[in-house]
């Protein structure tokens, strides 16, 4: 049984390491940082066999691509996925309930206990694997940060021992999800464990999940996840909402017409209650006293049986079914002629006809975020005799297990820590070490298709299409680091490591074939445009020059405001376009982000450069200047990138001097707080430069029904006055006259926004919507309308069904609004490259229409140029697509 490991992405400015273990019958994904789905798309590998996602820690760094990956899996018809991680992973997943759900797939969450297993000296028994199937046994070792002891010289074992005893109320063993086949079967007794008082509390009208703690809270979170991913697709909603009277204490009931039991082994009352209360906040989560755990994984492949020696079996007279028994390791006895006509019994042992079996092959993924995690890592591989066999130079250990490759995810200061180098040297010399470290690695482009396309457009207009920031040189060459083991290399995306049969790491040929970006930037010739493309570029530039000469050069309000589309694809990313986000930069005032789909941080980092030695330049400077993030609605392509941006902002040292306002629907405000319990995102911090949230309902252009009043007591952030006061402060910080949300038509609560500046210009952003009269009225006379155009003109019916707009409808809205400029964006993934525009130019004197493209940097006053470049951009796409050998991408068929 052959198997391999592929590296989907590594630590760069826009990706985190994602490693995939590949077997014929299944794939196992280790970590899903932001952009994992898009990396997968770029790698051209399919994910239909994905069985599980194994996370080394909880939080944005390792998990912010999880929602996208799960939805990609569901859309690829995968029916069941396991998600494993340290304590907090169920809470994290449950916090996504308002935007990540799929009725056709089940997700089983398995939390690995936080406390390291207790090791008994001399006990060679294998620890219990965290996960097993026919391909792998997976061991998970939790690590914690152990602050340097004031008493220098305290040995690691002592530190480790102390850790083991640390109390951890929330870290007690988490019962795996009930229908996990690897878990002990759930008995009726288990189902009855919910104490009666809890069931009674759930039935009370004033019940809130916030009251729950301990095992009740864990059970609640598991039920929330079970609701997000029920086992089988019910024909209708599993539970009918029944309006409860104030004094009705009956718990919510299962609909009579429920097609079949969903999650048959879960407690139905808890399951239904979690559904009924899904819009309420989750029970509070806190890490154990020992701090958040990071997991290291050991992946052990199957033990392959030796070859059956048929000739020897014939000679011994072994026939038929007896051969099968021997291959299964059993001895067999049968009657044979002894050569003299007498029948005698003969016993054959397996080793007489079956060659020696081959030891399992092994790989490891070690996540060591800080030097403070090293003591527990070292202790685990020395104190536990079973784990110690994987890190050993002894021949007898090598005969038992063949450790082929170790993946080290090293945080700052880890790799060059003497203790870590000594740890690495403890492995056998033939082990390959692959290092992911921002301090050492290059900053290669992962999304090479988009990077290459941008490189070509840069020749059309270097200001409007700046090349992505990247670096192909390692920041610090590993050959300069003394004391590392012999076979060490930097982890690069698209590496392939065959584990059985073992081969040295090599480049994935498929990825190499389609990477035009790196050969272009490292070759001597640079980017060579085919003559026909160069010709169209030349003509476009000439046209722009000609138009510029004829234009009125007087400055109008808003001309200098910069618009930078960061993501222009609808629902899913493509190799060419990321999901929704638009940056608006107001000179002298600051910046706003209109929606932030997954990967928006990475898009910013590639645009402005992520110099990890400086907290004041490039993307960090932009982040300091960012004063508002507007979230239009809860569809995944519009807001999943929010937490990553906040987490990166929280890292800045010194911190920003001003607050960042996040305007969004209540669900965003809730999940931000729930995720903040796992990882500090700076929400509600007291020192005045953190995240201040504003409920978008409260800024609507005309009064709306007072949503969320019922949560007012437990959620102060839904208070109307509080939101309006914060909005005033935000307007003051950005020089705005007003910031008004507009309810648009999208089948779910969705707001567009009208931003009016005191300098006399305004921007209207439609968000996702069918043609909306509200927007026309509220946005009248806009300087710029940024409108979605998901579909082409001949797709009106589909646009209506999906509550989106066609290109022509968007232009019509702009005309009726009398917008001076119209920028179309949010193109369906059916058009990963360019939306076919058949509509003629918008009527109206001087009105400009342009199509957005990721990473275009254009001032409102220069939008006409982007329009003039359209033939060149289309020609570039057509040509790049031919080189990429692309058909319509797989993602064009999926729908989230
Ligand atoms: Zn959308
Ligand atoms: Zn939407």
UniProtKB/TrEMBL annotation:
<keyword id="KW-0255">Endonuclease</keyword>
<dbReference type="InterPro" id="IPR047151">
    <property type="entry name" value="RNZ2-like"/>
</dbReference>
<keyword id="KW-0819">tRNA processing</keyword>
<comment type="similarity">
    <text>Belongs to the RNase Z family.</text>
</comment>
<protein>
    <recommendedName>
        <fullName>ribonuclease Z</fullName>
        <ecNumber>3.1.26.11</ecNumber>
    </recommendedName>
</protein>
<dbReference type="GO" id="GO:1990180">
    <property type="term" value="P:mitochondrial tRNA 3'-end processing"/>
</dbReference>
<dbReference type="InterPro" id="IPR027794">
    <property type="entry name" value="tRNase_Z_dom"/>
</dbReference>
<keyword id="KW-0479">Metal-binding</keyword>
<keyword id="KW-0540">Nuclease</keyword>
<feature type="domain" description="Metallo-beta-lactamase">
    <location>
        <begin position="621"/>
        <end position="827"/>
    </location>
</feature>
<dbReference type="Pfam" id="PF13691">
    <property type="entry name" value="Lactamase_B_4"/>
</dbReference>
<keyword id="KW-0378">Hydrolase</keyword>
<dbReference type="InterPro" id="IPR001279">
    <property type="entry name" value="Metallo-B-lactamas"/>
</dbReference>
<dbReference type="GO" id="GO:0042781">
    <property type="term" value="F:3'-tRNA processing endoribonuclease activity"/>
</dbReference>
<dbReference type="GO" id="GO:0046872">
    <property type="term" value="F:metal ion binding"/>
</dbReference>
<dbReference type="GO" id="GO:0005739">
    <property type="term" value="C:mitochondrion"/>
</dbReference>
<keyword id="KW-0862">Zinc</keyword>
<feature type="domain" description="tRNase Z endonuclease">
    <location>
        <begin position="6"/>
        <end position="58"/>
    </location>
</feature>
<dbReference type="Pfam" id="PF12706">
    <property type="entry name" value="Lactamase_B_2"/>
</dbReference>
<feature type="region of interest" description="Disordered">
    <location>
        <begin position="151"/>
        <end position="192"/>
    </location>
</feature>
<dbReference type="InterPro" id="IPR036866">
    <property type="entry name" value="RibonucZ/Hydroxyglut_hydro"/>
</dbReference>
């Amino acid at each position: 049984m052959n198997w391999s490991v592929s590296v989907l992405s590594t630590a760069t400015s826009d990706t985190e390491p994602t490693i995939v273990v590949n077997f014929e019958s299944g794939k196992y994904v280790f970590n899903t940082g932001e952009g994992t789905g898009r990396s997968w798309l770029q790698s051209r590998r399919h994910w239909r066999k994905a069985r599980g996602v194994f996370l080394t820690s909880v939080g944005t760094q390792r998990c912010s691509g999880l929602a996208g990956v799960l939805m990609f899996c569901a859309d690829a018809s995968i029916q069941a996925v396991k998600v494993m991680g340290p304590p907090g992973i169920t809470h994290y997943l449950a916090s996504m309930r308002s935007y990540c759900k799929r009725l056709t797939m089940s997700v089983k969450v398995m939390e690995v206990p936080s406390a390291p297993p207790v090791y008994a000296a001399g006990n060679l028994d294998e620890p219990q694997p965290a996960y097993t199937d026919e391909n792998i046994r997976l061991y998970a070792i939790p690590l914690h940060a152990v602050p340097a002891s004031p008493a220098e010289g305290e040995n690691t074992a002592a530190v480790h021992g102390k850790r083991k005893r640390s109390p951890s109320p929330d870290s007690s063993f988490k019962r795996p999800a009930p229908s996990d086949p690897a878990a002990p079967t759930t008995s009726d007794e288990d189902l009855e464990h919910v104490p009666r008082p809890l069931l009674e509390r759930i039935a009370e009208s004033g019940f809130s999940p916030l009251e729950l703690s301990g095992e009740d809270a864990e059970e609640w979170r598991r039920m929330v996840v079970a609701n997000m991913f029920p086992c089988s697709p019910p024909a209708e909603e599993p539970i009918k909402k029944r309006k409860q009277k104030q004094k009705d204490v009956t718990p919510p009931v299962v609909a009579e017409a429920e097609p079949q039991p969903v999650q048959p082994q879960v407690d139905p009352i808890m399951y239904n209650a979690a559904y009924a209360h899904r819009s309420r906040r989750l029970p509070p989560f806190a890490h154990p006293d020992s701090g958040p755990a990071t997991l290291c994984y050991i992946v052990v492949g199957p033990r392959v049986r030796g070859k059956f020696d048929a000739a020897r079996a014939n000679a011994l007279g072994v026939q038929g079914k007896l051969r099968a028994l021997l291959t299964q390791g059993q001895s067999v006895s049968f009657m044979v002629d002894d050569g003299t006509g007498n029948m005698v019994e003969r016993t054959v042992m397996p080793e007489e006809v079956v060659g020696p079996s081959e030891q399992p092959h092994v790989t490891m993924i070690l996540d060591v975020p800080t030097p403070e995690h090293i003591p527990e890592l070292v202790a685990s591989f020395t104190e536990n005799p079973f784990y110690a066999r994987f890190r050993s130079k002894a021949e007898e250990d090598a005969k038992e297990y063949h450790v082929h490759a170790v993946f080290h995810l090293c945080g700052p200061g880890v790799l060059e820590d003497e203790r870590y180098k000594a740890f690495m040297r403890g492995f056998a010399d033939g082990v390959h070490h692959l290092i992911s470290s921002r301090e050492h690695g290059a900053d290669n482009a992962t999304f090479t298709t988009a990077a290459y396309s941008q490189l070509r457009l840069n020749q059309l207009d270097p200001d409007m299409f700046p090349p992505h920031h990247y670096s192909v040189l390692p920041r610090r060459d590993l050959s300069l680091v003394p004391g590392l083991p012999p076979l060490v290399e930097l982890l690069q995306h698209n590496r392939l490591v065959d584990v059985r049969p073992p081969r040295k790491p090599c480049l994935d040929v498929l990825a190499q074939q389609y990477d035009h970006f790196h050969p272009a930037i490292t070759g001597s010739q640079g980017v060579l445009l085919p003559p026909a493309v160069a010709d169209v570029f030349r003509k476009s530039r000439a046209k722009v020059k000609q138009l510029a000469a004829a234009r009125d050069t007087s400055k109008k309000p808003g001309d200098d405001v910069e618009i930078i589309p960061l993501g222009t694809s609808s629902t899913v990313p493509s190799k060419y376009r990321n999901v929704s986000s638009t940056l608006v930069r107001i000179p002298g005032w600051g910046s706003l982000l209109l929606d932030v789909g997954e990967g928006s941080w990475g898009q910013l980092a590639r645009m402005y450069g992520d110099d990890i030695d400086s907290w004041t330049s490039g993307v960090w400077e932009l982040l300091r200047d960012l004063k508002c993030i507007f979230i239009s609605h809860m569809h995944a392509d519009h807001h999943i990138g929010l937490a990553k941006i906040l987490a990166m902002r929280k890292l800045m040292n010194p911190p920003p001097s001003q607050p960042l306002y996040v305007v969004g629907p209540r669900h965003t405000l809730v999940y931000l707080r729930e995720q903040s319990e796992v990882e500090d995102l700076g929400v509600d911090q007291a020192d005045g430069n953190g995240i201040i949230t504003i409920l978008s309902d409260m800024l609507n252009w005309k009064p709306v029904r007072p949503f969320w009043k019922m949560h007012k007591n437990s959620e102060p952030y839904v208070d109307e006055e509080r939101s309006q006061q914060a909005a005033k402060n935000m307007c003051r910080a950005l020089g705005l006259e007003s910031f008004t949300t507009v309810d648009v038509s999208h089948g779910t609560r969705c707001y567009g926004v009208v931003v009016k500046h005191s300098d006399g210009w305004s921007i209207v952003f439609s968000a996702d919507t069918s043609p909306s009269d509200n927007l026309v009225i509220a946005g009248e006379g806009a300087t710029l309308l940024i409108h979605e155009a998901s579909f082409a003109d001949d797709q009106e019916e589909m646009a209506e069904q999906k509550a989106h707009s066609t290109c022509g409808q968007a232009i019509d809205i702009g005309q009726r609004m009398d917008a001076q400029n119209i920028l179309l964006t949010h193109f369906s993934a059916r058009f990963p490259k360019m939306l076919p525009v058949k509509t003629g130019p918008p009527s109206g004197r001087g009105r400009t229409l342009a199509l957005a493209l990721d990473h275009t940097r254009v001032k409102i006053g220069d939008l006409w140029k982007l329009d003039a470049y359209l033939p060149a951009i289309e020609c570039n796409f057509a040509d790049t697509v031919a080189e990429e050998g692309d058909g319509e991408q797989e993602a064009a068929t999926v729908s989230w």
